[in-house]
Design a protein that fits this description.
By secondary structure, the protein is of the alpha/beta class. Helices cover 42% and strands 20% of the residues. It has 9 helices and 10 strands. α3 runs parallel beside α4 and α5 packs parallel to α6.
Length: 284
């Protein structure tokens, strides 16, 4: 049974927020917490073009120097990673999370997270990693790949931690969306928060029935729940509801064929997730 909250940290501006959301989630779920730092061993220094009039001995000497530089760079990266992991563990302890461990692995982030999937209950990571341009309107490439490859819930977090009090789920009545509501109902993650369920579409008997089911399911599990059916363009409508109700966390499902599920990740990343300034819980 997957049981751990797994938090992926690096040297980006999102690291502290990842720690804080992971600690919050671990306490709410009563789960142990693991921090992981992944060292990508792909060479950062390209081998120069040493053709021309340089002698063989000179070429070998320069290649040896490059090898030494790479070895030193890898050593520094390992030490920096260990310090980040220690700091994350200390930060979690200050917030009351006693059961923590740290992992440092070599390889690519996506492959490493997938390898640790079997014991992961929830993955927490920042919207962009340290290699992404901070002014970019795009998600980090690693995040997009992680969402596609992982089969566990993923909490994508912004730069600042805010205790979630108003949670919004875009709902379309599909089998996947209903499963998402049932997952929320069973989870203690949002105990005490108000769960908002929003259907973007016409006010029909079918939509009203679907919304009533979602609200009843959440309330039967002792969650506070509110809902609405709004007509309009999906992204604009959800953004307006978010502002009206001071939503501080979005819940969305990954993949599918409906307009709402395409909103998350289709062939291109959509504007709503790119521009989200609040955490997004991605259900699989």
């Amino acid at each position: 049974m997957p049981d751990r909250v797994l938090a992926a940290i690096d040297g980006s501006q999102y690291a502290e927020s990842v720690c804080d959301y992971a600690a919050w989630a671990a306490k709410a779920l009563g789960a142990p917490l693991s921090f992981i730092h992944v060292l990508d061993n792909h060479s950062q220094v390209a081998e120069p073009d040493l053709t021309g009039n340089l002698g063989l001995g000179t070429r070998e000497h320069l290649l040896e120097q490059l090898s030494d530089i790479e070895e030193q760079r890898a050593k520094v990266a390992r030490e920096q990673g260990k310090l980040m992991l220690e700091a994350a563990q200390h930060r979690a302890a200050e917030q009351g999370v006693a059961d923590t461990r740290t992992l440092q692995r070599n390889g690519t982030l996506v492959e490493t997270l997938v390898e640790n999937e079997t014991e992961t209950r929830l993955l927490v990571l920042g919207k962009r990693g340290e290699s992404a341009h901070q002014a970019s309107g795009h998600l980090g490439l690693n995040l997009e790949r992680v969402v596609r490859e992982m089969h566990r819930p993923i909490l994508m977090v912004p730069k600042q931690f805010t205790q979630p009090h108003n949670v919004m789920m875009a709902f379309d009545g599909s089998k996947t969306a209903r499963k998402g509501v049932e997952m929320l109902a069973k989870s203690p993650l949002f105990a005490g928060a108000i769960c908002h369920v929003v259907i973007v579409g016409a006010e029909t008997a079918e939509n009203r029935s679907q919304l009533d089911w979602a609200l009843e399911t959440l309330r039967a599990a002792d969650h506070q729940a509110e809902g609405a059916i709004r007509a309009g363009e999906v992204e604009t409508t959800l953004r307006a509801y978010k502002q009206e109700r001071s939503i501080d966390l979005l819940v969305m499902g990954a993949y599918g064929h409906s307009r709402i599920r395409h909103l998350l990740l289709g062939s291109t990343t959509t504007a709503m997730l790119r521009n989200a300034q609040l955490p997004v819980l991605i259900l699989r």
